[in-house]
Input
Amino acid sequence: MEEQRAWNGLTTIHFYLRKGYFGSALSECEKRLIESNEPHLAILRGLTLVFLERRSEGLRLLEGAKEGPCALGALYALRVAHGRTAKTDKESQRMVETEIAKTLKDATPEALISAIEVLILSGTTNGVKPLLDRAMAATGGSNAQVPNLIGWFEVSSGGNQNTAQKAFEKAAGMGYPDGYLGRVQILEKRRATPEMRIVAKVL
Output
């Protein structure tokens, strides 16, 4: 029950971020953080603040998250934050890249998932595939978030739509609601309206 509630919350946040509804995403992050102080939620909140041009708040939150179990995700979010400034802080960027390289070596599945999540939601696909491969190997396919992220990676990078569909089907079959949203998006692209309506009804 708790896991399903967490998945529902993440799906809502992901949906808002993908659509660019950053204010709604921030509200959902804050609501979920009251219920569950999960590290990756704090990272998503920090990232959303950056998207809302509230960079100083986002940076403070992400700097604090570097010390937690999802440090890799926080570092990638910091990279995004530093890359969105009008005046590039090369020293800060260099330090973040150094920390990413160091943290990446011993990253846990949770940290890898957080990092992949940040990259995809930031519109970045470079370097995602090796992280996905590591996350899949580390979880043995038992974590529904991994196939779901594979699906969104394929969609975001303009990759193989059949691979995306199979990944979303696997995630949805494990009860992860974002997998259903992915399936709807694939069917929408294929203009398979009747099938799309059937899948949408499950949500």
About this structure: The CA atoms of residues 46 and 61 lie 6 Å apart. The chain has a mean pLDDT of 89. The first helix runs from residue 2 to 19.
